[in-house]
Amino acid sequence: QVQLVESGGGLVQAGGSLRLSCAASGSIFSIIVMGWYRQAPGKQRELVARITRGGSTDYADSVKGRFTISRDNAKNTVYLQMNSLKPEDTAVYYCNAFPRSIDPWGQGTQVTVSS
Question: What is the pLDDT of residue 27?
């Protein structure tokens, strides 16, 4: 069973950058699509970026041009580079498979963007 551990979050001013990492305890090579999700207080969890095993990517309109997802199958790690951060990006960020998620979800990593 693959377990996911997210890290790299923190407090940053608007316009700043963060790089999130998601380390899997097992191989993610067989997982065709991995995604980064986020959940802001009082809101539903949403998918912000996804990447296929071959490296094709897709982004939510709200982060397009600012976020970059990547994956290293050899290291069983998925990354999310976040630039030009906005206060509305504040949320807990999670990684997981897409569309069928792996249970349990990781603990997530908090990203807080101050104005």
Answer: 82
> Pick from 32, 3, 37, 39: which is nearest to 20 by CA?
37
Rounded Cα distance, 49 and 58, in Å: 6
Give the neighbor-by-neighbor strand order of the sheet with 67-72: 4-7, 18-24, 77-82, 67-72
Pairing mode of beta strands 91-97, 33-39: antiparallel
- Place 86 in a pLDDT band, splitting at 50, 70 and 90: very high
pLDDT above 90: residue 31: no
- Locus of tokens 């940053």: 12
80-109 burial by CB neighbour count: b if 16+ within 10 A, else e?
Answer: bebeebeeebbbbbbbbbbeeebeebbebb
